[in-house]
């Protein structure tokens, strides 16, 4: 079952993000890796900045999370993670489908360029990589991340780029 996460779920969201993010260890640039991958303070800041988490629950336990953030002209999918022990069971796809149904705006997803499995997942679900120039513009417009993260990331969109600035 998918439902909006509540404050009670904070510790589980935190645990799932940091468990699942272990997949990035040794893959993303070493200067971008840290442990824990996301601190409780950063998670709280993300939520205060408008990231709303939805969770996939089984037997009343949270198994996967995905955030959505309204940024005016676009919607961002943020912090998509599934517990390591529950991967490859369709949870991520179900969460992504659920969240994409919540908006009619263009959806953007930023992820690490080196995380080929993540990029392939989003492409399998209908998202397309944007150009390098567009990626740089979008990351600087809609995300609040360090320049080094801009350099080492990609952006995918559910709408083809038209170079008309519609997002």
Task: Explain what this protein looks like in three dimensions.
The protein is an alpha+beta fold. It has a single domain, classed as Gcn5-related N-acetyltransferase (GNAT) (Aminopeptidase). The protein is built from 6 helices and 7 strands. Strands 1-2-3-4-5-7-6 form a 7-stranded mixed β-sheet, with helices on both faces. The radius of gyration is 15 Å and the shape is globular.
Shape: globular
The helicity comes to 25-40%
N-end to C-end Cα span: 32 Å
Q: How are the strands of the biggest sheet laid out side by side? A: 1-2-3-4-5-7-6
Oligomer: single chain
Structural class: alpha+beta
Provide the CATH top-level class: Alpha Beta
CATH topology: Aminopeptidase
- Proportion of β residues? 15-25%
What's the name of the CATH homologous superfamily?
Answer: Gcn5-related N-acetyltransferase (GNAT)
Q: What does the radius of gyration come to?
A: 15 Å
Contiguous helical run count: 6
Tally of domains = 1
List SSEs in N-to-C order.
EHHEEEHEHEHHE
Major pleated sheet? 7 strands, mixed
């Amino acid at each position: 079952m998918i439902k909006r996460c509540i404050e009670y779920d904070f510790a589980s969201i935190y645990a799932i993000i940091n468990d699942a993010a272990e997949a990035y260890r040794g893959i993303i640039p070493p200067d971008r890796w840290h442990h824990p991958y996301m601190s409780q303070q950063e998670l709280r800041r993300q939520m205060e900045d408008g990231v709303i988490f939805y969770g996939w629950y089984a037997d009343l336990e949270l198994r996967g999370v995905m955030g959505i953030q309204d940024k005016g002209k676009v919607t961002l999918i943020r912090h998509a993670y599934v517990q390591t022990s529950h991967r490859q069971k369709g949870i991520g796809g179900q969460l992504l489908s659920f969240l994409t149904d919540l908006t009619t705006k263009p959806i953007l997803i930023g992820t690490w360029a080196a995380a080929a499995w993540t990029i392939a997942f989003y492409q399998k679900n209908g998202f397309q990589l944007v150009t390098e120039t567009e990626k740089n513009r979008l990351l600087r417009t809609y995300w609040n991340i360090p320049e080094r993260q801009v350099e080492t990331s990609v952006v995918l969109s559910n709408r083809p780029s038209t170079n008309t600035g519609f997002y």
